[in-house]
Design goal:
alpha/beta, ten-stranded mixed β-sheet, D-Maltodextrin-Binding Protein, domain 2
């Protein structure tokens, strides 16, 4: 009898131990699946579609670099239509693109129409001449007198005896608006040629030893020479510290009350974050963030 009781007690103790082991291991079995929803919630939703931008030809380099980086990061395509600042502002106002691009600040009437500006970066407007031109530095006053026709020969500035050929941008260009506003020559410039893109201005000045023009500093090539203004050479550093006087904002234009697509909003957030600063600097302009 005693052996039977002992045997029963042994069996009961064994079952108790097994039960305790089973209850201790159960939480471990349920903990792993519980972490899965948290991990899934942390993952960003996949983006799809494309983002359309339209406007300033001066912003081609910086938007191109940002668009390429964003596409590599997300797989979303960013398109760029170089129509000029005025056209880009109009396009976003009419809903023909996601984000408008302007190389000038919005005017009061544009803001009143429901448009909003966000400054992406600051860009110097380089005063450019042919590399063969001996002139290296001009004052703002001299530049204004040249473009309004008060000074017409390079010899008046210490250069060769040759007529100055004035090259500029078309009406509605952000670069033209910025240049004329800074030099005080709005609606008074005596242009020989009014061209529709930054590239055209650079090419024309590069081909004419007597020409002078203006272009986005970020777009200037070795085919032309950028003049110092008031003794300050245009560069990223002098634009950033404000010592180079001929500079303007690069602006992203959106419409109030119109929600961007998920991809467009994500692109907007990306290019206005500090994450994009290195790319913006690499494009030759100074980030506003």
């Amino acid at each position: 009898m005693k052996k039977t009781i002992a045997l029963v007690l042994t069996v009961l103790m064994t079952l108790s131990v097994l039960s305790a082991c089973g209850s201790n291991s159960a939480p471990a079995a349920t903990q792993a699946p519980a972490a899965a929803p948290a991990e899934a919630a942390a993952e960003a939703p996949a983006l799809s579609g494309s983002v359309s931008t339209d406007g300033s030809t001066s912003m081609e380099k910086v938007i191109g670099a940002l668009g390429e980086a964003y596409e590599q990061k997300t797989g979303v395509t960013v398109t760029y239509n170089p129509t000029g600042s005025g056209s880009g502002i109009k396009a976003v106002g009419e809903g023909r693109c996601d984000i408008g691009l302007s190389s000038r600040a919005l005017k009061d009437e544009e803001k009143a129409s429901g448009l909003t500006q966000t400054i992406l970066a600051y860009d110097g407007i380089a005063i450019i001449v042919n590399p063969a031109n001996p002139i290296n530095d001009l004052s703002l006053e001299q530049i204004a007198k040249v473009y309004t026709g008060e000074i017409t020969n390079w010899s008046e500035l210490g250069g060769d005896d040759a007529e100055i050929v004035l090259i500029g941008r078309e009406a509605g260009s952000g670069t033209r608006d910025g240049f004329e506003s800074i030099t005080g020559t709005t609606d008074a410039c005596q242009y020989r040629q009014e061209l529709t893109s930054t590239g055209d201005v650079i090419t024309t000045v590069a081909q004419n030893p007597n020409a002078i023009g203006y272009a986005s500093l970020a777009s200037v090539k070795d085919t032309v020479k950028a003049l110092a203004v008031e003794g300050v050479t245009p560069s990223e550093e002098t634009v950033k510290d404000g010592s180079y006087l001929v500079q303007r904002p690069f602006v992203l234009v959106t419409k109030e009350g119109v929600e961007l697509s998920a991809a467009a909003q994500d692109f907007f957030n990306y290019i206005t974050s500090t994450e994009a600063n290195e790319i913006i600097a690499g494009a030759g302009v100074v980030s506003a963030n």
